[in-house]
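Two quick folds needed for the group meeting slides. Do the first one here.
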Amino acid sequence: MNLYPKFADALALPEFLKQYGSDTDRSRWSKVHDEVHLSDEQRALLGKFTRETHVLVLAGAWCGDCVRQCPIFSHFAEAAPALKVRYLDRDDHADAQTELLVNGGKRVPVVVFFSEDGHEVARFGDRTLAAYRAMMEQHTGASCASGVVSRGDPLLKQATQDWLDQFERVQWILRLSPRLRQKHGD
């Protein structure tokens, strides 16, 4: 399935949360957003992103994993205007969910990166390596994370870097693409 047409149906984060989130959901996302802080080095790196990248995020406003990770993307897009981040609700887009199963399961968030002209570059999800490492250390069963982040949460800082590594990888793939270098004359 070509997922790029879904980008046109996807929503910017405020519209996504307005349409799909409850007041409680929006509050949780806002609290995490306020706790994300990019370092000067991270901002400088994002400032080097020049290739327009369409970022499609399959998410659920109710999902603790989404709450803990997706607000990070807003900070990336603010620091790198070339990043166009949009959200699809997992339940309203069952066809996309089926295409983006992780280990045979319906997981969110899942991010699909596209070039400016709609070619899929990469997929990543559902949790970062830092999150899985923490889960392995504190394994308590199959319960879903609450999405609650405490002030100064070191896992949020690690997750931010894990996601930035993925966004950076995609940017360099796009910047070094012979097809796009020819198109942009660089």
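Then this one, please, same format:
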Amino acid sequence: MSRRGLVWLYIFTDITFSVLAWALFFTYRKLYIENAPFTTDSNFYLGLFFVPIFWITLYYIIGSYRNVLKRHRLRDLGETFLISIFGSTLLFFALLINDEYYFKSDYYLAYFGLFIIHFILALIPKLTITHRIVKSIHSGERGFPTLIIGGNENAVNIYNEIINLTNSPGYKIKGFISTNGVDRELLDSNLKYFGGYDKLRSVIEEVAIEEVIVAVESSEHEKINKIITDLDSKNISIKLIPDTYDILTGSVKMTSIFGALLIEVNREIMPVWQQNIKRIFDVILSVIAILILSPVFIVLGVLVKLGSKGPIFFKQERIGIYGRPFNIYKFRSMVQNAEKEGPQLSSTNDARITKIGKFMRKTRLDEIPQFFNVLINDMSLVGPRPERQFYINQIVKVAPHYKHLQKVKPGITSWGQVKYGYAENIDEMVARLKYDILYVENRSLGLDLKILIYTVLIVVKGVGK
């Protein structure tokens, strides 16, 4: 079964068994707590519909449906236990606290009955599916296309350690790329040699690499930092080989008793549950914004059309998360064919900007069609502004750390946009970059809220650059 299929299997079983859990709890409450005959009512049927949605939302928020091939049974046990306690508590106070019982202890029976029934029925199918996934990975049936970077003794040792493990950790090693020449022992093995470090990006794309093991000396900090920076814009798991110092200082965090000794580079600043809540808010607020601003859409559309020849909307290819291109949408604020002579950044007194375009840029109203970009998951409400590949190539020459921005989704508004506004040249793009880097390395729901508030103030005051 494909990864997407496994995700839907988890969702399907969560829905099915939460429906069953609610039906069993309702029966338990009627027969054993209320000592009444089992009868269904509107609350029973409403619960069959809304309670599963409630549980699915909780599981989504904590990231249960992400990286399903990397689930393990202990994680299933811990997640299901904690979510069952949290969810049962919410349901109890929302739906059951007003029930009238003869004895105070009946409230405890209702709460613990709800918790135990859901916990058991939710855990069993999860453990069953996860067990089959883990078994398929350990047997080598499933795995993650893996690339080794390095051609020295470290690379040879880690390669031999992985292929000699009794239970496969899931690394399907496709070959290696050298950084300081090539070790003959690696070349003499069955491991494919892809070439020097300059081939890294092309190999990752052509072979669909998902995991990278950096097998250079841990003392070569500059080289390791460059490799991690170069991989930052890719959705790839990075592993490092620790040395004795790393182990003694507690830098190595083991997650698998039988796996190879590797450090996983964790680049997630924002916890998974915050990322998922951010996505839920993105969708809800975008739908609300589109509904509320629909009259503004119509008025601006008419003004843009009457103001100059050309289409109402402007579409342009930008680069999003992990370097993926997408089409961004705006209200057209410039004359038609404004870039007939090639890519050009706008300036404050740019003659190509129309009269209505100047107003829209100051109030950021030209950006509101991007709420549709948010709905289709190309963008977020808050995130670094997406650029064109033409300008990214120039920025990277001056500021290679720009690649850090591509590990998050671009946004309608950003810290750099709030502090700096539209950039008129490469130097200003680089100057704005520091704010966006600060955002990426410190992102949180609280910071997103602050940026949204400041953006609203800019729109209301019309002081945007």
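Slide caption for protein two: Residues 247-252 have pLDDT under 50 and may be disordered.
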